[in-house]
Design a protein that fits this description.
globular; 6-stranded mixed beta sheet; binds adenosine monophosphate; 11 helices; alpha/beta; about 350 residues; binds manganese (II) ion
Amino acid sequence: MKSQQGILEAAGELLRQHHVFLISSHLRLDCDGLAGELALAHVLEALGKQAHIVNPGPMARVFRFLPGSERVMLASDTSERPSDLGALVILDCPDLSRLGDVAALLPGGLPLLNVDHHPDNTSFGTVNLADAGASSTCELLWRVIRANRLPLPPEAATNLYAGILSDTGRFCFSNTTAEALSVAAQLVRLGADPLAVGHHLYEDFLLGQLRLWADVVGTIDVALAGRVAVAVITQGMLGRQSVSGEDTQDFAEVPRMVSGVEVGVLLRELSEGRVKVSLRSRGPVDVNVMAARLGGGGHQNAAGVVLSGTLSEVRRRVLAVVEEGLAGSAGSGREKEARG
Ligand code: AMP
Ligand code: MN
Ligand code: MN
């Protein structure tokens, strides 16, 4: 097996060798995936190359400030593949099934660079930089850029900073490592704009979004002796505040904020009798295992799945799995916290 240094060099070689790139990321695009795409596009352009960003779904309104976001295309609006493609780059995506409609657009036989920090990445690329110890995909892209002395324009630095800030929950989640903080500091030194990123990601709600936030807080109730909190977003709640589903990205963090809660669950009603389930936990409580049991996936402290059924059916199913998962890790979280 190659050392990480060897993989970083192979990634750099792949980026230097080709001229036209297609870049994509996972369904329900988040800031780490999108900002990573944009950062890489700025780096490739600084090298005189071309980058096409094609995504499986729309981006949240708050991400539009990210430098270069206007160039992002949707797979459903892209009938033809960009011509002369030399290589593909897939970011923050554990397997190709998470690429939605983009998968059908990918030509076979091209070199593929896979950069990801999900623990269950399937190494589907020709070069696989998969490291679950990294805070974010943007931190991994930083390593590629530095190891290969690639140019890093300020627009790319701002994007990488945004990805790291967002995936660490503003440096609050358990992936807030010294390395993540150090990379963020170096990005600011290289021209990243932390004020703009902080403002746009966390202080620029539409009034309807903020009112929806209050509505969602109003739905929170606790279960399993206070170890789990559940919040709900119905289609009616979205409609009343004129907010789209994409614009509820950070709402999944809300139920976990209840003191003493170990697992936060957000249930968002989709169309056609389906429900988007977002699970959030703290420390050693592993919601990735719980999501996997329901057919989804993610990270130890943040995972998701889409299930069929009514809100109350899905709630029952999810709570049963969470209860089982918490029984499996009984007391471990509390003991660890008590030890500090
Ligand atoms: P979300 O709750 O949608 O914000 O997702 C939290 C994390 O879980 C992200 O890393 C997602 O990529 C991952 N995730 C969400 N839904 C799924 C799914 N159906 N399958 C695999 N991973 C998922
Ligand atoms: Mn992601
Ligand atoms: Mn990520």
